[in-house]
Structures are given as C-alpha cells and as structure tokens.
TrEMBL record:
GO molecular function, one term: adenylate cyclase activity
Lineage of the species this protein comes from: Bacteria, Pseudomonadati, Pseudomonadota, Gammaproteobacteria, Alteromonadales
Chain ranges of the Adenylate cyclase class-I N-terminal domain: 20-214
Domain of life assignment: Bacteria
Coiled-coil positions: none
Database matches in InterPro entries: Adenylate_cyclase_1 (IPR000274), Adenylate_cyclase_1_N (IPR024685)
GO biological process: cAMP biosynthetic process
UniProt name for this protein: Class I adenylate cyclase
Short name of one Pfam family: Adenylate_cycl
Length: 958
C-alpha cells in the first residue's frame, strides 16, 4: 500500500497544473467507482439505458428516443460515444450513423446523477434524478424543446421500468439563487446552498464538464470566486472542461429552517429517510460554520488522498457524522432511531442469505456497521421482517418517529426565534408544508389517526375481534367497544392486550379500515354484549367504506393545501347497534300504523333515528368520526353538518351518503335522513351564498326551526304548534321565507299553503271562515307570520279595516322616512282559504276590495307615547274625536267603546278594528332596521282591539 499524498495547494504562491490534474483524476476515480456501482445495481436493460442517455442529447435523430425536432438543443460537451454505445443505438435504426461535429458548440454542458444513486442506499426501486445542465443563453423556445425531449426520454425509460427525473439546470442562474417551486421531487424555495451541498457530495458525472468546485481547496472556499476566476482567466484549466455552480463556504442559517420544514413534509410519506436528513439539518445548524459541512469534508478527504470509496459513500458519511453528534450529546435513543432508519433505508436484510453468489458491497459495508452497533439477533430479525409488523409495533415505532419529527420542528422553530431568522422558503411554500404537517400529525377530537405513514408495508390482520365492553368479566354498565387481534376464543380476552378502545364501534371500524388493518379477507368476530350490534351491520359498514372511500385514499393534490380545508365527503350511519323499533315491535305498532315518516312514525309519532355516526373526510384528507346518541341526535348532527358546509365557500357541496343496517325499516330510515339533509342544504345554500330561510322540521311531536345567524346555523325547538307560531311571528332582519319539510305540519294544510304562497315585497292576508269566526294568517314584508282568530260577519267588515290599517301605516312610514325600504314597492294582497276536494286540501281565492266600501267604517286611530315612568300609553281618536289618556285615565277604553257603540245603528255588535296606529321611537327592541316591521304593528293592534272588543261586549251585555 503506497503512502498517501496530501495535496494542499496555495494558489497565492502559484498554480501547479500537475496538481490540478491529480486532483481532477482523484475525483474522477471516485466518480468512476460510483458510476460502476450504479450500473452493478441496475438490471442489464437499465444499464443500457444509462449508457445511451448522453448520446440521446448529443444528437437529434428521428428514430432515437426523445426526438422532438431538428431545432432541439443538442451536443454534450467533451462527449464522444464509444463503439458499444453506437452499436446499441443502431438497434433503434440500422441506418443511424454517428458523425462527430467538432465545431458544434454544445448546448448541454453536463449530465449528473445525484441523490441515492451509486450509494449504499441505492436499491432496485431507486429512481434516478439527473441534472441536465445546459448553457446559458438558450431562448425560452429552445428550453421548451429541450424540456419536451427530456420528458419523452423519461416516458421511454419508464416504459422499460426505469424511473428517471430530469431537472434542467443553468449553472449561471443557479449561482444567482434562482429556484423552483415545491413538488414531490423538489425542495422549491426551501434551500439553495443545502441543495448544492447534497449535489457536490452525491453527484455522479455521466458525461460532460466536471465541477470547477473540485479544484478549489477547502481552506480557500471563502475566496471561491477569486480562485475560480484565477484558474479560468489564466487558463490553468480550460473553461470548456468545467461547469461552475459556485462555492460553498457558508450556508445561511435561514436555509436550515426552510430545508427542515421541507424534510418534515417529506417525512410524512418517507419517515426513515427524512429523520436522517432532519437530524443532519439540526447538526448543521449547531456545528456550522465552526465545523465543515459534509461536501467540504468529502472534498478534504480527496485532497488528503483518502480514496476509500466505502468511507466516502455519501450516506455512510452522513451516518458517521450523525453518530458522532448524538454520542457527544448522549442522545442514545435518537441514535438508535437513526441506526434503524439507516438500516431500513439501505434495505439489505442481513438475516437472509444474499441472492448473488457473492455479497454486494452494500451488504458488506452494512454488515461492518451493524457489528459495530452490537445489535441483537432479535432486533435484526424484526427489522428484516418489517413486512410482518403489526399494529402494536407500528404504533411504537410511529411514536419514536413522530417524537423525532416533533423534536425537529420545535428545534427549528426555536432556532429561528433565537437567531431572528426568516426561513429561506417563501410564504406560499411554508403554508403548504405547514398545512400538510397539520393534516397528518395534528391531533383533534374525533380525528382518525393514520398510524402507518411509510413505517410498514402492510398492517393487514387475518383476524379481528370486536367486543362490547359489557361482555367483559366484571363489567357493569360499560358502554364502549374493544378491539382485539388474533383472539381465537372470547374466553381468552384476559390474556390478550386490547388493540384499541372507543365509545363507537364505527370509529373502531374506520380506524381499522383507513389504516389498512381490515379488508375483505379479514376474519371477523363479534361479541355484542348488551348492545344489539350484529355481524351483518359490522360487515356492511366495512363494505360501505370499501364502496365509498376505497383504501388507500389518494394523495392530496398540492393545490388543496393552498386553500383552507373544506368538507369533501360525509358518510352517516344510522342506528348502528340499535333497533329503534324494539319496543314498538313488541307492541305490534308497526303493523297497525299508516304513518310511515321515520321521524314521526306511527300514531305515537316516534322518531326512529336513535343514533348517528358521522364520518367526515375533508379536502386535506383528514378523517373524523362523531357519534350522536344522546338527546336530539338528528338535530345535533344536522347542526354540525350545516356548520361545516359554511367552510365550503366556492367549492362544490360535499358528497353525502347515508346508510342504515338496523333490523327494521333500515332503507326507509336511511332514505328519510338523506332526503332531509339534502332538502335542508338545498333550502339554505345557493350560488349567492347562505339564504335567509327559516326551515321547519317536525319530529317526535315537536318542531324545530333552523335559521342562520352570522353564518352559523341556529336550531330552536318547540313542544307544540302555539310556541312555534309565536316564534314565527318574530321580526326578521330581512325577508326570510318559511320552508316546511315534506313531513312537517301535515295536519296543518292551511299553514303549509300560506308558507308556500308567501313572497317578498308583499303584505299578504289569508283568511279562512269557519261559521262565525275567521282565522287570519298575515305574512308581512319580511316573512313574519301573524295569526289570529276573530269574529266574522262579512268579508267587508273583516278586510276593509285591515286594508285601511295597512295603507295608513305605510303612508305614515313614507312620511317619516326619506328613503323607505318598507313602503316603496310593497303590495297588499287578500286571499281566502277554501276547502278543496278533501278536508286536508285547500285552495287560494284572491279577493279584490271595492274602493267605495272603504269609507263605510269608523276610523279608529291609536297614537302611542311614553309616560313619565316610561310606560307605553295610547291616545285614541274615533272619527277625529279625541280620547286622551290624560283625560280618561283607566276609563279610556270603556269611553271609546261607548262612543263606537253609539255610532252604530240599533247597537249592532261586531268587532272593532283599528284603522291606524302610531308608535313612538324606540319601541322596537331589535336593531335590524330603522323602522318597525308590519308584524310589530299587528301585535300592538291585536292587543288594543282585544281590549276594545271586550269593552263593547260588556256594554252590550248590560
């Protein structure tokens, strides 16, 4: 073994071309070893593909892969194909002949592979990332042609089973810090110098110019540009032989934060690779610039003539550096995670015999490392049998991985705060990364935790057992569910650990399904205990997931993370483990009733929706489970569902699926719930936004009114019709029509008809005559409903006073407001409700009032004011005759009644109606609008009229 020859040139004293050639040759020697190792790890057809790549970019030939046009940039610097390559190329075209064009100025300066290729971490499934380095000055059209050529070659290689990714690189632009955007193959704006660090220590030159960086001593890296110019300007090297991506003396601290966030993003799907790179980022943040980065460490080794290709393997160098760092800090648990990550990344199973006659160089290096770690045989077997890992082991490993990722996140955040840094990652990229991390790792109530992100190939179980907690020994009123694996007999539960617990069996099933633990091939067992859960329901819930949300869920499009999450899909399971008709079946009710509404079934009006389990999937593919089993379960679920729809914005409404597998009326129950949800959504949500609607649901002999306030749904419940009508009489901030559910108020056909006929911009009076009484239904300009029953004598005595009342208050408003939103275009409409063909069928008959009849009735006007104590009082005027409260006091109403009676012929008794009403400022407790709503006038009118008519009756009875 010869003595090592350390080269440490001092270009200030002069440049030795011989030394430059030695250094170049050393780098090229390591490069050649890595290229050979790359080829050795590839199948023969892929080796051929790699050999042909430079030729494809050297020429534009119509019969060679990647041809776009004759104008596509071509020519690889310093490249000349050998005979074997040309012979292989002739397989594509026997007429192909290569002509050397020495005068051609090459458009392609270099082709570099980088990453794990050619390293201990290369595997048969490794893809190849290639920097396609072109000269500066290519036009956008030329770049587009070159990009298309690279894409076509990628497609051709992919058809042969080799995954290649080309990245067009302009060295001049790269030195100026121009980057890309975040995608699965690029770190976007997150890093520049860290990417250059990785390039210099992992790149393998396929063809073209070698990096000028090779020739600048580590000690002179601070003056990289000066010495780079010296070597080229004074022609110690030919500029056409080198490509210059710049020096690497300093890596800005800001990059560690951005690069760390990027690795956290990658860690979601490839945790073992990412924890290694995350720890390297932490190490760099702690040790640089006092210590060398890895690329400079690699370069110094070359200068020191340490040319052991195993020791210079990029991944081995990373591990060695991390090992020193963690041992110095005494963080041995983290070191063990790094060792496991490194071992699994390399992927050589040391417990099995090598497939080839001789062990690969990766296996030999890995064997030496594992021996130094003193791992037990059981640990090694466990890692080699990762495909057999099951939930407990994956959960344990996931905790270690998530702990490391969390540690890295906290370190990076603290590092940024301590140094007052802003990450070298733009706000858009940072938002994308942060949101994906949040979606995967953030814990929330009801969220289904996905435990197997790149840890084990599969978690499928052959046998799962679902046990209701009441079936357990010594259980009393326990109401949860337990999940076991490989439990052959329910008598063995005491000897088996519980895999997972939940209050909802649907949550357990969802957790199993979306983690790939249960599938069609899984053998299931069920011990229902005190519940009525059946194997039929269990299997159908799994089948529903398989039908509606096949596992695994597709990856989330990156664009989704640029927006706030919104609901995509909701699945409702009704009455899981419950028979809502158990008691009714015993009474035989289901055989006797013709009321089929599942929310008001039979003459007892029973609600058949006992429980609801809601599975929600949002646009970030977060899964959550919510169970509703106490109180008004359907109303609670509907309220939550409507609240989530507010987040939809301009996106399509989420898909809704409802399933029910209970023993009785399952399909009818599911259909009813599905229809209700869709009808409510259709009533409130439109392209214009959330509509100001009031939606009435009747359920279990009760009524519920849904209305949105401040973009949130409000549900108000009522135990009967009277309180419902009082609620519908309340003033509104804008026109709010009343929408009635299909099965609500079926025994109130007149109300349903009134709601159906009401419209904006109109005061509508509906009346129905029953012998000597009239039922009034008045819908005002904002949709508020006023109901009243009054004695009936004739249409004119009923409607003319109302007509005069409405016209006078509209005129009063118009006189007191310069711009009146109430009276500008309001119409008055009078209609009679008449019985149709059946007692439950009504028709609307519009009435037109005769103008000459308006003057036949006494004018009764009430003007309100506040007394000294703040009490509202009224002065009343009858045909201009004043009756002041100051004059009459408590005898005001009897005095007015006496006067009215005196004006009637022979003391006729029929109702007295106000024809005008004036109310003082501030009488409205609501701040919806400046003026009073018509329904509020009607409320005061009704009170005064009741007092007057009672006084009239008293006088007549004397």
């Amino acid at each position: 073994m010869g003595l090592k020859k350390v080269i440490q040139p001092d270009y200030r004293e002069g440049v030795d071309r011989k030394q430059l050639n030695i250094l170049r040759d050393r780098f090229l020697l390591i490069n050649q070893h890595r290229l050979e190792r790359t080829q050795q790890a590839l199948p023969l057809r892929h080796q051929t593909t790699l050999d042909l790549l430079p030729l494809f970019f050297q020429v534009n030939h119509p019969l060679l892969p990647g041809y776009v046009s004759r104008d596509t940039p071509r020519g690889v610097a310093n490249y000349a194909p050998d005979k074997l390559v040309l012979q292989t190329a002739q397989r594509f075209s026997k007429t192909f002949k290569y002509k050397s064009e020495k005068r051609l100025k090459p458009d392609i300066l270099s082709l570099f592979m980088m990453g794990s290729i050619g390293t201990i971490a290369q595997s048969e499934s490794s893809d190849i990332d290639i920097w396609l380095c072109h000269r500066s000055g290519l036009s956008s059209a030329q770049l587009a042609l070159l990009q298309r050529k690279a894409e076509l070659i990628t497609e051709w290689a992919d058809a042969g089973g080799l995954e290649i990714h080309f990245f067009l690189m302009d060295a001049d632009h790269f030195r100026q810090g121009q980057g890309g955007c975040v995608d699965k193959e690029s770190s976007g704006s997150a890093q520049h110098f860290l990417l250059l660090d990785e390039f210099y220590r992992t790149s393998v030159l396929i063809a073209g110019c070698y990096p000028l960086w090779w020739l600048i001593p580590v000690c002179d890296e601070d003056e990289y540009d000066t010495f780079a110019e010296l070597l080229t300007r004074k022609r110690f090297i030919r500029e056409t032989d080198v490509i210059d991506f710049g020096g690497l003396a300093h890596i800005p601290k800001e990059e560690f934060v951005g690069a760390g966030m990027w690795q956290l993003y990658k860690g979601i799907d490839a945790p073992y690779k990412s924890v290694i790179k995350l720890l390297l980022t932490e190490l760099y943040a702690q040790e640089l610039p006092e210590k060398l980065n890895l690329s400079l460490e690699y370069k110094q080794a070359i200068y020191n003539d340490d040319l052991d290709v195993d020791n210079l393997d990029p991944y081995v160098m990373i591990y060695r550096r991390l090992e020193r760092y963690l041992k110095e800090r005494g963080e041995l648990e983290r070191l063990e995670l790094i060792r496991r990550s490194f071992y699994l990344k390399v992927g050589k199973k040391l417990t099995s015999k090598p497939t080839a006659r001789t062990a690969s160089w990766q296996r030999k290096v890995m064997t030496r490392l594992v021996e130094s770690w003193q791992w037990s045989d059981s640990l090694l077997r466990s890692l080699d049998q990762r495909n057999l890992w099951r939930v407990p082991q994956v959960i344990k490993e996931r905790k270690a991985v998530v702990s490391e990722l969390t540690h890295s996140y906290r370190f990076l955040s603290q590092f940024a705060r301590t140094h007052g840094l802003k990450a070298h990652i733009n706000a858009d990229d940072m938002a994308i990364l942060g949101r994906k991390l949040y979606a995967v790792f953030q814990r929330k109530a009801g969220k289904v935790e996905l435990i197997n992100s790149g840890i084990a190939p599969s978690l499928h179980e052959d046998h799962l057992a679902f046990h209701h907690q009441s079936s357990q020994p010594l259980a009393t009123d326990a109401n949860g569910w337990l999940l076991y694996r490989e439990l052959d007999s329910s008598t063995d539960v005491a000897f088996h650990p519980v895999l997972k617990r939940s209050t909802s069996i649907v949550e357990l099933i969802a957790w199993c399904y979306f983690n790939g633990i249960v599938s069609k091939g899984t053998r299931l067992s069920l011990v229902a205990g005190k519940s009525t859960m059946t194997m039929f329901e269990l299997k159908n819930i799994i089948a529903t997931f398989d039908q509606l949300a096949p596992y695994p869920l597709p990856s989330v499009p990156q664009e989704r993370f640029r927006q706030n999450h919104f609901p995509l899909h909701t699945i409702l399971f009704v009455n899981v483990g419950v028979d809502p008709m158990e008691e009714m079946s015993a009474r035989g009710v289901h055989k006797l009733s013709d009321r089929n509404d599942s929310l008001g079934y039979s003459s007892y009006r029973d609600n058949l929706v006992a429980t609801l389990d809601q599975i929600s999937i949002n646009s970030w593919h977060e899964l959550s489970v919510q169970r509703y089993e106490l109180g008004d379960t359907l109303i609670q679920c509907l309220k939550y569902y409507l609240a989530t729809l507010v987040e939809v914005g301009d996106h399509p409404m989420p898909r809704l699926d409802v399933r029910c597998f209970c023993p009785n009326r399952a399909m009818a129950i599911a259909k009813r719930v599905n229809t209700l949800f869709n009808d409510v959504v259709g009533a409130f949500f439109s392209a214009k936004g959330i509509l100001p609607v009031r939606y009435i649901i009747e359920m279990d002999r009760r009524f519920f009114v849904i209305q949105f306030f401040n973009q949130q749904p409000r549900f108000t419940g009522f135990d009967g019709l009277s309180p419902l009508l009082m609620h519908l009489e309340q003033p509104q901030s804008s026109y709010a029509p009343i929408v009635v559910d299909h099965y609500a108020l079926l025994d109130q056909p007149k109300l349903r008809l009134v709601f159906d006929k009401s419209r904006a911009g109109t005061i509508q009076v509906f009346f129905h005559v029953i012998k000597d009484e009239a039922e009034l239904y008045i819908v005002d300009e904002y949709g508020s409903l006023f109901t009243s029953t009054t004695p009936y004598h004739s249409h004119q005595s009923l409607l003319i006073p109302l007509y005069r009342f409405f016209t006078t208050i509209l005129e009063r408003r118009q006189m007191h407001q310069s711009i009146d939103v109430f009276s500008s275009d309001l119409e008055l409409e009078f209609s009679e409700l008449k019985v149709g063909k059946t007692p439950m069928d009504y028709t609307v008959d519009k009435k037109v009032l005769a103008p000459e009849a308006v003057a036949l009735f006494v004018d009764v006007q009430a003007i309100g004011s506040y007394d000294a104590q703040g009490e509202l009082q009224f002065d009343i005027y009858c045909d201009q005759q004043e009756f002041s409260v100051l004059e009459y006091g408590d005898r005001l109403i009897p005095a007015v009644a006496h006067y009215i009676l005196s004006k009637r012929k022979q003391g006729e008794l029929y109702p007295c109606y106000l024809t005008d009403l004036g109310l003082p400022q501030g009488v409205d407790e609501h701040d919806y609008h400046t003026g009073l709503q018509t329904v509020q006038y009607l409320q005061y009118k009704k009170t005064l009229e009741e007092k007057l008519n009672q006084a009239l009756q008293t006088l007549t009875d004397r």
